[in-house]
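Fold these two proteins, one after the other.
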Amino acid sequence: MPFFVYGTLRPGEPNHDLFLRGRTRSEEPGRMRGLVLYAGPGYPYAVDEPDGAVCGEIVTARPGAYEELLAELDELEEYVPGDATSLYERVARDAVRADGVTVVRTWVYVAAPAVAARLRSGGELIEDGDWRRQRSS
């Protein structure tokens, strides 16, 4: 299953080069509805919000690289299934390709419930859902 990335794993960002460069079959712009972004310390958090939308890329791993890449991204995002101290959760969600029509089922890392609650009560919302644009302004 592809990944939807919206922060430091996007092309041109530092973790893209460290984790994805040379290991992907395709990378294409996309959007994911039902999420909003909050600015974090150096990286964003996606949080469930029915009316939100987030900009990012749909990244498909090369055959043979998927399992190792999945494990490395889980470690990068400090995601451990069932661990209440995880910062993120990896969930399956639909992303929409740039054509606005084609839907792709993807993995996406969203803020874990405790982190999401803190962000909703006092985090810095990225209004347009585009972390890259927010960082450059």
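Now the second one:
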Amino acid sequence: MLMAHPAVLRNLVEQYETLEILGAEAGSPAVRQRLADVAYSLCVATGTRDVDAALVAARHGLPGARAGDDSLLSV
């Protein structure tokens, strides 16, 4: 499977995390749509169907990622 460039993955993860921190889920329709768009892009870029799995896959695709990063056991 092709994987997105690490810079693209990093950007998408940062956008998603920022929108979550800012409470985008409770924001305006435009902000909620942006969160949904970024989540969708993460899923497409990582070949997953769930944003949580996409975040794990994206973080593992970044330079310097360790095998234990984002372990599903810590969720």
